[in-house]
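Sharing a chain and its predicted structure for anyone who wants a worked example. Both blocks are below, sequence first, tokens second.
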Amino acid sequence: MINCGDCERALNPYLDRELSEEDLVQVREHLDACSGCLHRFAFEESLRRLVRVRCQEQAAPDSLRQRITVTFAIERTRTRTRKRSD
């Protein structure tokens, strides 16, 4: 069984469903046995739910969308350039 530190580090990947089946089981077992970690999990899960709902209610300003698009394009170009030079 994993300890509280391991569980805390695994919470975000757990919530994102990025863990292996074995790791998912270990985190779930720890949450079932540890009220402190379960409380932290419940907080993180409710915070994500709140952010998801709020983000659906309000659209980002066009200026922000444009800046993000440009930033992604620049980073994509940098990544491609780095890969070519490797």
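Comments welcome. The two ends are 41 Å apart (CA to CA).
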